[in-house]
Every structure is written in structure tokens, then in C-alpha cells.
Write a structure and sequence with these properties.
This protein is α/β, with parallel strands linked by helices. α1 packs across α2 and α3 runs parallel beside α4. The chain is globular and about 45 Å long.
């Protein structure tokens, strides 16, 4: 079983990773916006960034990852290639990304296909040795498992290096009940809150979780379609630094 120390990628405990959604009206706009968003994150104290083709496409993701690779960024950057996990690994290898995010590593396929998921993850983790942050019962993913959530969380520990927990939708607050359920099943395995983090809930969530992914909350409208807002990032990161102290 491959095991990487996911949290060791970050300079500080309880890392907050900012999401870049690749919004834009054409290829150049996507590229320029993403460059600007990287700078906004860097200037406001984020601990890491994730580049994801949420609004964009594979080729736009490939291009901005190449840019990130050439910039010698002072923080780690990861990649989530939605709906085609294998390309996330390929992009991470091509552009020296620090980690791969996968929306689900267990329970989203029919029980007969779990062996295929396991074989795929074993194969690509051996080839790339890049840490994997994997979702379980993740937003928008089907739940086709025959197992309890707790059993699938135990399986996930052998398939990734950190587990991501969300509620049901982008920007929706992840309940403390679900975070605690995951923590109790995972023990001291790294647990990342993947959606719905706010200044009102981060203290209680960080009493249990080891880090967070934030996207919509950093936008000017607090919605995924908004523009990245430096003051929103700075405000939350100042609170996180206080929690760390």
C-alpha cells in the first residue's frame, strides 16, 4: 500500500487550499483570469491552490498547469481533472503538481467495479507517487456502494492519502455530524473539508478536520460564478492563522 504524508506538503498546519475554477469566455480569458487568481491567492496568504476544469476544459487546464509549473510558486498546487481521473494523474506528472484531487475513490461505482477502481488507483499511484486527496460520499457523486459509509472510509484509507468530505452541493455547508462521522471512522488519517467553509464555521470544523478547500466563499458574491476577492481570502486566512496560534 502506497502512503504519502499529504499534510507535509504544506508549510503550516490546517492548510487552506484555494480553488481556481477556470472561468472565462474563451481560452485566453480563462488563462489570464487563472493567472490573476493565482496572484490574488498568493498575495492574501493562501496555503495551496487547486486547478480544476469546473468551468473550463482539459486543454485550458493543461495550459494553466504549465504556467504554474514555470512560476516556481512558493505554495503547493494540485489538479482535479473532473470526470476523467486518469488525466488528473497524467497532468500532475506532466506539470509536477504536488497532489491530485479525485472526487471519489470508493462507493461511486457498482460493487463489481470496486476492484477496477482499486486496480486503477494502485497502478497510477505507483507510477506517479503523487499524493491523492480522495472524496467519499462526495457532492454530486452517486452512492452505489453496498457498504456502510464507515466501511468505505476504511477502504479509502488504502486508496488515497487524505479524505475529502462535503455535503451535497458546491458551497453548501458540510455538517458537523458528517465531519465527525468521517473523523470517527478515519482515526488520525488526514481529513479535509471540501465545501461550505465560512468564517462562522471554520473554528468548529478545524477542531476536527485537518484542512479545507475553499472556492465559492472566496468569490465576491460567495457563489462559484463570482469573481475571486482578495479581501475575502485575507479575512478567512487571518482567522485561520488565529486558530493556528
Amino acid at each position: 500500500m502506497i502512503k504519502n504524508d499529504f499534510l507535509a506538503l504544506f508549510a503550516k498546519p490546517k492548510p487552506v487550499m484555494g480553488m481556481i475554477h477556470l472561468k472565462g469566455i474563451d481560452d485566453n480569458d480563462v488563462y489570464q483570469r487563472a493567472q490573476k487568481e493565482i496572484d490574488i491567492y498568493l498575495n492574501n496568504g493562501i496555503d495551496g491552490i487547486i486547478l480544476e476544469n469546473y468551468f473550463g476544459n482539459y486543454y485550458q487546464l493543461d495550459r494553466i498547469l504549465e504556467y504554474a509549473h514555470t512560476q516556481d510558486l512558493p505554495i503547493p498546487y494540485g489538479v482535479n481533472c473532473l470526470n476523467m481521473d486518469v488525466m488528473g494523474f497524467e497532468l500532475a506528472k506532466r506539470h509536477s503538481a504536488y497532489f491530485v484531487q479525485l472526487d471519489s475513490v470508493v462507493g461511486h461505482v457498482k460493487p463489481r467495479d470496486e476492484a477496477t477502481v482499486e486496480a486503477f488507483l494502485n497502478m497510477y499511484r505507483e507510477r506517479s507517487n503523487v499524493p491523492v486527496m480522495g472524496g467519499v460520499r462526495f457532492k454530486y457523486q452517486p452512492v452505489l456502494s453496498a457498504n456502510t459509509t464507515e466501511k468505505d472510509l476504511v477502504i479509502a484509507k488504502s486508496r488515497c492519502d487524505a479524505v475529502t468530505v462535503t455535503q451535497d452541493a458546491t458551497g453548501q455547508e458540510t455538517s458537523m455530524d458528517k465531519i465527525l462521522q468521517f473523523r470517527n471512522a478515519l482515526g488520525d488519517f488526514p481529513l479535509i473539508v471540501g465545501a461550505g467553509v465560512t468564517k462562522e464555521n471554520i473554528r468548529s470544523q478545524f477542531e476536527v478536520a485537518d484542512g479545507a478547500i475553499v472556492g465559492s466563499y472566496f468569490k465576491d458574491t460567495r457563489k462559484d460564478t463570482g469573481e475571486l476577492c482578495g479581501s475575502h481570502i485575507k479575512e478567512l486566512m487571518e482567522l485561520v492563522n488565529d486558530i493556528r496560534r
